[in-house]
Structures are given as C-alpha cells and as structure tokens.
Design goal:
Layout (H helix, E strand, L loop, with lengths): L10 H8 L8 E8 L2 E9 L3 E6 L2 E4 L1 H6 L2 H5 L3 E5 L8 E3 L1 E4 L2 E7 L10 E5 L7 E2 L1 E3 L19 H6 L4 H17 L6 H11 L8 H6 L3 H10 L4 H15 L8 H19 L1 H22 L4 H12 L4 H12 L1
Parallel strand pairs: 3-10
Antiparallel strand pairs: 1-2, 3-4, 4-8, 5-6, 5-9, 7-8, 9-11
Length: 327
C-alpha cells in the first residue's frame, strides 16, 4: 500500500518545535518510521544557507556553494542596515564575480564602522533565504559624501551595542523592564523602528526580540504605548508567539490594569487634567478595541477592562452577567 504525508501539513508542528529555542541554528529532524525502523529522515532549518564574515565582505560557505545553483546565487538579494538606524534605507550589497560568474561573496565597502552593528539580511523575494548576521562594517573612501550622523543616544541603543553577548542580553532585559514602567522612556522610538525594519525576519535574528518574547508584561505595555499601526503591531505580537513561544493570553488582568494606569498618567501629564478627562478615555477605548480585534482570545478581558476603566457596557459582558445570574 501507499500513504502520503505532505510536509506542508506539518508546518505548524515544525514551527512550534523551532519556537522552543531562540537560537538561529536550531533544526528539526523529521523521521519516517516503517515497521519500527527508520525509512527516511530529513532536517528542516530556518534558513537555506549561511553567510559568514570574510575579509571586507560576507560569503557563502564552500559546501553551500556546491549545493546551490549559480542562478540562486545571482538572485540572492543581500541588504545591510545599521541595527541602531532602522529608519535608514538599507544598502544593497553587490555580488562579486569572477569572469562574469557570481562567486558567492558580497562586498561591505561603504558600510561605516561607526554605524555598527550592521545587520546583513536577505531582501524580500531573495532566491536564497540566508541566516542574518551582524558585522562591524567595512571601510569608507574619502570620496564618500555620506555624513557620519551619530547613532541614537538612548538606553536601548547602548545595550544593543555591548560586545559581550551575555552582558548585552542582561542589559536589553533591564531596559525593556524600565520601558514597561515608563511610557516616556527614550527607547520607545527605536523599538518601533526595529519592528518596522526587521519584523519580517526570523525574530531570533534580533536580540531585542528574543528578550521581548520572555517579557509578555512588556508586550502589554507595547500594545498600549507603541505608535505603530494596530494591525502591524498585532502581527508582530503573533510572530512572537509563533516563532519564540511568547504567550500573551497567560498575562493576568492585573498586568493590564497597571499598564492602563501608566497610560492614563502619561497622557494626563502631557495634556493636563481637563483635556485628559476628555481625550484619554477615547484613546484607551481605541487601543483596547484594537487589541480585542487582533487577538480574539483576549476579547473578554479587553471588554472587562473597558467596563472597569471606561464604564462601557458591552453586549458580551451583559450576556455573561445573565449567564452567571441564570446559573
């Protein structure tokens, strides 16, 4: 007899297994067992190939060059962007050739070292999905007219630039916790910028995202504080769950209450008491409704918070009250 198992049908399970680790290079092994014996196996990873730093460039490993076709190498789009300047336009790195044949290396001349760390990552639609990597930059010629604008001077930027991995993760965590306590923290704009620039990449590519996935209480504040469009923000949070296992549904209502209190306090300080009484309830209602729209599992919690803070009596809460009374 014959049986067919589509790899696409296992996509969710594979992704769930990969989400158990935030490391770039984790793999999932699929085994086909027939009569208790392994008949077939394959390895699934997050990327097609890996680029490695070389002198004044990045390049494919020799093994990958032998495995992929020249058309794929030619069609591999390689971009570079300073992690701490996420609103800049990404640089397109040119593939090196030998007698007209792409040799699987891309030069990094012109990437200013003072703007490091640079993230090298695949362009959208690239023929090869490669492992994003951080580099220090190349050299800049005297005829390069670009200005060496300073990097952002905020707590999150300082944490990201730390060279030691362990110290960097600890520092990023401390900054994110501080941001959750302070709606006016100087690092909120760069966090939004990181999402806008790199949110489509595997989230384990960015240390800030890896740490954020371990802090759902910070994500709650982000949902209320971020200036990103609600749909874009909702997609990012769903990716945190799918790729890194962050579970927003387990966050208690008390955490949401504390975040809302800070929301009110922040806006009241900006607008003054009189204007805040009129405007802040409208702003909060819009935020809570957006969260309920993006995350159906949180709808009842959001409607309860709307009742508590805004005295809005929503149909689902009234129905819940009737059900409780009826029982």
């Amino acid at each position: 007899g014959k049986a067919e198992e589509k790899l696409l049908d296992l996509y969710g399970e594979i992704e769930a297994l990969l989400s158990l680790s935030s490391e770039h290079d984790e793999r999932v092994e699929l085994r086909l067992m027939v009569g208790g014996k392994r008949n077939f196996s394959m390895i699934v990873s997050r990327y097609d190939v890996a680029l490695r730093p070389k002198f004044m460039g990045v390049a494919l490993e020799d093994e990958d060059m032998r495995r992929v076709g020249l058309e794929q190498v030619q069609g591999c789009g390689v971009l570079a962007l300073p992690i701490l300047r996420p609103t800049d336009a990404p640089r397109v790195l040119s593939v090196s050739t030998s007698q007209g044949v792409p040799c699987g290396a891309w030069g990094i001349e012109g990437l200013r070292p003072e703007h490091a760390p640079w993230l090298v990552y695949p362009a959208q639609g690239s023929a090869l999905e490669f492992r994003p990597l951080c580099i220090g930059g190349g050299c800049v010629g005297e005829d390069d007219g670009a200005t060496a604008d300073p990097l952002p001077d905020c707590a999150l930027a300082a944490a990201i630039r730390l060279p030691d991995t362990e110290a960097r993760i600890v520092a990023i965590d401390a900054v994110l916790v501080a941001m959750a306590m302070d709606y006016d923290h100087d690092s909120w704009s760069i966090l939004d910028g990181l999402w806008s620039a790199f949110g489509r990449l595997p989230l384990c590519s960015i240390d800030t995202f890896k740490v954020l996935a371990t802090r759902p209480e910070v994500v709650v504040t982000m949902l209320l504080r971020s200036e990103l469009p609600a749909a874009q923000l909702g997609d990012h949070v769903r990716q945190l769950k799918r790729q890194l296992g962050m579970t927003l549904e387990l966050v208690g209502v008390t955490v949401w209450r504390r975040a809302i209190e800070k929301f009110f306090n922040s806006w009241t300080q900006k607008l003054g008491d009189d204007l805040a009484k009129l405007s802040v309830p409208i702003l909060l209602s819009e935020r809570l409704k957006a969260v309920a729209t993006e995350f159906s599992a949180l709808q009842l919690n959001m409607e309860w918070l709307q009742f508590e803070w805004l005295n809005e009596h929503l149909p689902s809460l009234l129905q819940l009250q009737k059900d409780i009374v009826g029982n």
